[in-house]
Amino acid sequence: MIFLLLILNFAISWFNAWSVGRVWVESKMIGGFSRMTVWCGAIMSACGFTWVYIALLGMLAQSFQWLPPRYIQGIFSLGYLVIILPLLGSGLGIAVSSWVQFWRQKNLINGGIAAWNTYAQISNVVSAVRFIPEAIGNVLSAFKGDDDEEDNRALLIMLAVVLVAVGAGVMTARAIILGTARKASQAVLTEIQTQHDATPLGRGRATGM
Length: 209
Fold this sequence. Notes:
Elements: H1 2-22, H2 24-30, H3 32-63, H4 69-104, H5 108-143, H6 149-198, H7 200-206
Helix pairs in contact: 1-3, 1-6, 2-3, 3-4, 3-6, 4-5, 4-6
């Protein structure tokens, strides 16, 4: 069940990155609120990938007993603390964007999207209020371990695991976004070239007139 949830989370994060990549260049040219919303989607995607990697690395460390239990808890808790504020901030930006879209075009689809984004944001805020204190306690417990070589090594591994997961999450989202953006740009250029070649001027140049 856990692995199914991780696969679902990975798929949602991939879809978010792909969606962002499709409008990445266009939003860069438009700027303003549209660009902010796209960046929120990119941050959301990176946070999703990061959490998948944290969960996988944490479960591997637990399965092979690489670390004591409190440092395993520290991996999950520190990872949660690292992504929760960017997640809440980007979620708020996406929710506001959906509200604006619904205000401009009042229909069932836009209303449903705005309602879902609002629910997701409220749910994330409630979860953060509940779990942030516990996560802080777990991280502090890991840092307050016995000052010996074994505990220091475990603490460094815990920090390294979270750092690797964050880096991998950001790089995965970046790779998908930029790769999709390049393909979208090439498709637009190809369409423009095709339309140009179909015009009398384009046909004239092609035949040497």
